[in-house]
Structures are given as C-alpha cells and as structure tokens.
Design a protein that fits this description.
Elements: H1 12-37, H2 50-73, H3 78-107, H4 118-129, H5 142-186
C-alpha cells in the first residue's frame, strides 16, 4: 500500500500556480532590491528629501496593494496570490524606509550610531519591522528618530491592515468562485 503524502492532495494546476507565484516573487524581490541599489548613498539635499520619499513611497505602496487586491479577486488561486502579495508588499514597505534612512544618513552623517550602507539601512528596517530591534544601529538625531517612529507606527498599520485586506480579498474571491461553481452545477 502506497503512503499518501500531504503534497499528493494538491492538484497539479495548483502546483503550477505556486511555482509561477514563487518565480514572480523571486523576480519581484530582485527588481525591488535592484531599484533600491540604484539609490545614491551621497545625496543632494536640494533634490532628495526624506519626507518626499515617504509620501512617494506610500503612494507607490498603496497603488501596489490595490493592484494585488484586484489580482487576488480575479484569481483562480487567490490564496497563492495573497501570499505573493504579502511578501512583495512587505519587501516594498522595507525598501521605502531603507531608502529614507539612507537619505537621512546621507544628508546628515551621524544620524545613526554608525554610517549606513544600502545593506545596513535595509537591516535596520527589518529589525524594526520584526520588533526585534537589536540595538546595534539606532537613531541618534531627532530627524532619524522621527523616521524610525513613523516606521514603527506604520508597521502596525502594515501588519493589521495589509494582512486583513489580503485575507478579505482571498475570502471574497473564494466565495465568488464557490458561488459560481454552485450556480453552474445547478444549471
């Protein structure tokens, strides 16, 4: 008698959707981090303002989440797209603040306990998002502390709102799909 595995219960089409989603996540993460690598370390304070970056970043983030919700609602496998959307929206959220921290450090060296590189500013955003906050890199100036406080507050919103919105979209898409499946079975 052959042993059944959990993976045997997943239909081949769903495996294909998972594989394509994994590929899109890998490409999306690569693209987000590539764009981030293009952000200059040395900034010109006349054209590179952290507040403008925050507003522009949040506008892009909201647009991205809206597009992901539309994709989830129209998907055959909304659960897969919801996970994809959460991963990519988290990466985008982190890069927005990593860019802001890089700009603050470039505009005002000494804003953090050590000079920030692209990697260390990304590391800082991840420790704040995960609420671990190791303390090896901390904000020193008021501007840097304000940016960190904004990220902390928005992180709570990110976790609460984004996850709930993607869960809602997934449930709605599943309900619509099951409703349409039921209506086609009765006709």
């Amino acid at each position: 008698m052959a042993r059944k595995h959990l993976f045997d219960a997943i239909p081949p089409n769903r495996w294909k959707a998972i594989a394509l989603s994994t590929l899109r996540v890998a490409i999306g993460l690569g693209f987000i981090w590539w764009l981030y690598s293009l952000v200059p370390k040395d900034v010109d304070e006349r054209i590179f303002i952290p507040g403008v970056l925050l507003l522009a970043g949040m506008a892009i983030y909201i647009w991205f989440v809206k597009k992901e919700i539309e994709r989830i609602l129209g998907s055959r496998y909304p659960e897969v797209l919801a996970v994809e959307g959460l991963i990519l929206s988290a990466a985008l959220f982190l890069v927005i603040f990593a860019t802001i921290y890089l700009a603050i450090d470039g505009l005002n060296p000494g804003s953090f306990t050590e000079p920030l590189s692209h990697l260390s500013s990304h590391y800082l955003t991840l420790t704040i998002l995960s609420t671990v906050g190791f303390g090896d890199i901390t904000a020193v100036t008021d501007q840097a502390r304000l940016a960190v406080m904004i990220q902390m507050a928005l992180t709570l919103g990110f976790l609460a709102v984004t996850i709930r919105v993607f869960a809602w979209a997934t449930k709605r898409a599943l309900a619509q799909r099951h409703g349409s499946d039921a209506s086609t079975q009765h006709n």
